[in-house]
Amino acid sequence: MINISELAAEKIKEVQKAQNKEGSYLRLYLAGFGCGGPSFGMTLEDAKTDVDVLDEEFGVSVITASTLSEYLEGAFIDFLENEEASGFEIRLAKDFGGQGCGSSCGSCGGSC
Fold first, then answer.
1. With 107 labelled, which of 22, 59, 91, 96 sits at a CA distance of 20 to 30 A?
2. How many CB atoms sit inside 10 A of residue 9's CB?
3. CA–CA gap between residue 68 and residue 30 (Å, rounded)
4. What is the SS3 string spanning the chain?
5. How far apart are CA 15 and CA 9, in angstroms?
């Protein structure tokens, strides 16, 4: 299950309203896989597919491809605000660091 902070849910609803997409799904997708593990992005979609997993919290419906369940189980979506920036953050419950690396002395891009 993917969890959402109440603040993140409010901000997602604001984005949905601003884009005239109230009631749309928030899709989490795999944006890349690097030395720190997988990174995910978010977008709004009008429909879900048969292979999507649906989670709902604070009135926000989150969909993800079932193939990503291994990475997103227990993930937490939050909204962070500080003096320098603000935005959404997706924190994974598991540490996948190092899985995207080659075998060059145990570090990404490192050389012997």
1. 91
2. 18
3. 8
4. CCEECHHHHHHHHHHHHHCCCCCCEEEEEEEEEECCEEEEEEEEECCCCCCEEEEEECCEEEEEEHHHHHHHCCCEEEEEECCCCEEEEEECCCCCCCCCCCCCCCCCCCCC
5. 10
